[in-house]
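In pairs, describe these two lines:
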Amino acid sequence: MGTQGNAGIANDIAKRDWSAIEQALDQYGNAILPGILTAQQCGQLSALYDRESLFRARIVMARHGFGRGEYKYFAYPLPALLETLRQALYQPLVPIANRWNRDLRVGIRYPDKLDEFLRRCHGDGQTRPTPLILQYAAGDYNCLHQDLYGRHVFPLQVAVLLSEPGKDFTGGEFVMTETAGGGQYAHVVSLRQGDAVVFAVNRRPARGKRGGTRIAAMRHGVSRIHRGRRHTLGLIFHDAR
């Protein structure tokens, strides 16, 4: 996870087909970025879970009615690879986020740089870092939810699957639901190790049946793990109060 490797990741993210990613986000509320990390990088990140000094908090889901399993929020400063991913992914997502707000007639606009947006969060008391690693074992799951941590919310976030489906675990699919216009839809997103999924945090603009724009409310979660252990990296761009 050296500097050169991190620079390569940032370049790879910038060169992705963001037009196609934007189209998928507009249509489904999620989009896959295949192979954003190597298997080695995934293993290195999973191994961080046992290094308590890197984290500010550990959450046991069952204690809060969130499901079963646990996760840990990183402390600042973030590991270099996480900082690179968070900064590099924010850049191409900002234009999409700002267009979504215009379509939804929301007056908020997001600055071009993540550091500027985080200063906005911190100035309003949202100072706790939100990148996290989630750990699931057999029988664990994550209830459908939205990651809202205060008044300032960036409308897109990213999850990267660190474990290898079929080898490290079975089950445990990433699931999204969409509620709009009186109907509800489910999206099951199949990921491989190292794949990232970009998805709507809370709500997104959707095309109405008769034209125009309607609001789609989004939630996400993880289905039950049948066997093994599953690690996921979560990258949320707004910090928490």
User: Anything to note?
Assistant: The first helix runs from residue 3 to 14. The chain has one domain: 3-235.
